[in-house]
Queue: 2 jobs
Job 1
Amino acid sequence: AKETGRNNYQFYTPAMNERALERLRLEGDLRLALEHRQFELHYQPQVDLCTGKIHGMEALIRWQHPAYGMVAPARFIGLAEETGLIVPLGAWVVRTACMQAKSWQDAGLGELRVAVNLSARQFTQKDLVKSIANVLRECGLAPHCLELELTESMLMDDVERAIGILRDLAGLGVQISVDDFGTGYSSLAYLKRLPIDVLKIDQSFVRDISIDPDDAAIVATIVSLAHSLRLQVIAEGVETAEQLEFLRDHGCDAMQGYYFSKPVPADQFEAMLRQGKCL
Ligand code: C2E
Ligand code: CA
Ligand code: CA
Ligand code: CA
């Protein structure tokens, strides 16, 4: 703080005020949002490319802010991470997604698998494995129906520690997928040692798959890499029939993207399941 008079302190200067204030406001709002139940999960179908049917979904968080309306996760996940709020928020996401999956299963809508994004801070949190185990037990969801999405940087940051955590998670029986695969710095040597189940091809490679031969080659390579490591492979950001066709021709196992459906609220997702919507 800058001293302006005897007992007067000017706490911010015009240069720093605008953005810092906006951040502070959002941070304050974020703290209240969990209590005030302003978060909800949307679900985006994951479609099996052999059967053409929905076999699972990714849970994606949304913030219904009282003044700003729907706030995208890109605008608040980083802040939640920095402030530590991601820990209770992430726990809420895991619990809500598992309860939803179980309730759709119980309604006879199929053995759905739900994918949940974990943040770096959640991943290295001491009691992660215990808290996931608790949620699964309380919801009665079969562990293999929960898939945790992690990024390459989370895994490669401290590989030995990551291997330890992954082994414990694998011990519970949950599935692990590597999100945004290809955008980080995975070492193939390490990839082989990690107990993971799924590679998720980043949407930046899928986008130009039918016009850019380099992207086409990258995607084809990731699919065959995954299969030779006995991993499943799913493509995200699939928006066109051409992209879908390429992925199917190259043996990709599953896909997710606007071509099939955007992420939608739970009731709309349930309607898709009841209709038996397929490719
Ligand atoms: P992500 O995990 O890579 O999620 C995929 C993003 O791509 C989602 O954006 C989704 O709506 C969008 N998407 C899906 N299909 C298409 C498509 O065909 N075309 C295009 N252009 N985009 C598509 P969203 O929901 O805004 O989420 C952004 C990011 O926020 C996520 O990226 C994830 O990193 C993070 N996030 C979302 N929910 C959570 C959460 O519950 N916890 C944590 N830690 N992070 C979350
Ligand atoms: Ca994801
Ligand atoms: Ca992704
Ligand atoms: Ca496994």
Job 2
Amino acid sequence: KKIQDQILVIFGASGDLTYRKLVPALFDLYKQKSLPDNFVMLGVARSDFSDELFREKMVDGIRQFSLSKDAPQADVDAFADKLYYLSINTEDSKEYTKLTQKLDLLDSEKNTEGNYLFYLSTPPNLYPLIPKFLAEQGLNKAKGKIRRIVIEKPFGTDLKSAVYLNKGLLADYEEDQIYRMDHYLGKETVQNLLVTRFSNSIYEPLWNRNYIHHVEITAAESLGVENRGGYYDQSGAMRDMIQNHLLQLLALVAMEPPTVIESDAIRNEKLKVFQAIRPLSQDDILNNVIRGQYTAAKVKGKPQKGYREEKGVNPDSRTETYLALKLYIDNWRWGDVPFYIRSGKHLPTRVSEIVIHFRPTPLNLFIDNKEYCNDGNILVIRIHPDEGILLKTGMKVPGAGYKVKEVNMDFHYSQLQDTYVPGAYERLLLDAMLGDSTLYTRGDALEAAWRFVQPILDYWKNNPEAPLYGYPCGSWGPNVADSLIEGKNMTWRYPC
Ligand code: BG6
């Protein structure tokens, strides 16, 4: 698809996301020659910046966070010339006339054909307002021109607010104008899930309850909440990671093959997965959902604060910084196969991966072999770091007898030496500019994911004494989570 000339308007332009992710990703697109010939990025926020000061700040972000951070200064300067800034109070509808005027001006000066892409990277309380104010200015629709709106996560804080937000958006925009961001979907390895599953004939026959014993999905982080305590304390691991990123991974692992690789075909299949997740009963929530909160400890000799001591966090907070849960997908493919999902802050390492545990052979012929446990092959799909795919298989140790050893068939993206692997924001920004929503979440699927999560949130709210386990910084979360995985000698994979 040829990319059309356009203006990208980023609301929340003075914020961290613009500085660390969005503008560095735009610069990467510029370096890859993927931006349209006529392109402008207009940053909008309340803070007072001149174009020059804004550019200076953005260049600083590029130098730290872009994949092309070592690019020659001339390239950075040429790119920075495309950045502009407008200071308005985005909560005040009247101020939007200034935006319209600025857009008219930039559009006629830079020949961007009246095409506008709006990106909301503001505090979430503005998500219902900004699209409405844009619509009041008539900026939501223009025949033959691009009018799209990208909304950062979190999309709602619960089912009700997500439904409300969708409804408000759909009053002024068509679904195909709305791009709901989940940056996990922009990760190359996440997209590769579809290719692994549907371009290889060896996996599909095994990818079901007959051959898969259980599936693990982990997103572990080694850092704490850093300077985001205020936000995180209202959010917790469930809203911050599970409801969006991890359930999206689940959908890609569990979905049926689409009939074509097209946005709605793929998103229809993902929706069906969310609809088929078995709702958790109160007993399930009590037994199969484990919450934890990190406590002060030394990690590699360095003292780390407990969560309740973090800036912006309520000292009596019961917000979870770790969550592990077990769920089932009630359909023909997955009947009774447990899926285990976990995410946490201040764990021993930063890793996101999906682990498919195949069933063991029907009979263990090498039973005397103590080194080989024959619990079944595992396939590890590594989202990051060290992106790749690993299959563990048994192999005979050369020599007398039948000694079996587990060996790895291992592929790392880093082996593709000359291939450029775009960052998640780079890929997703480009898709929104191109008008491809495949890697964005659709409103109905998002609501379906909230529908699964909501009873758990309600349960915690109504039962404040429900267990919340402390775990020391640098550990793998509460010990009780180890026993969540069913099966003899079975527990999580603990990657190092
Ligand atoms: C964000 C969460 O959406 O994802 C953060 O708000 C989290 O808390 C981050 O750290 C993780 O993303 P990644 O790409 O580093 O795994």
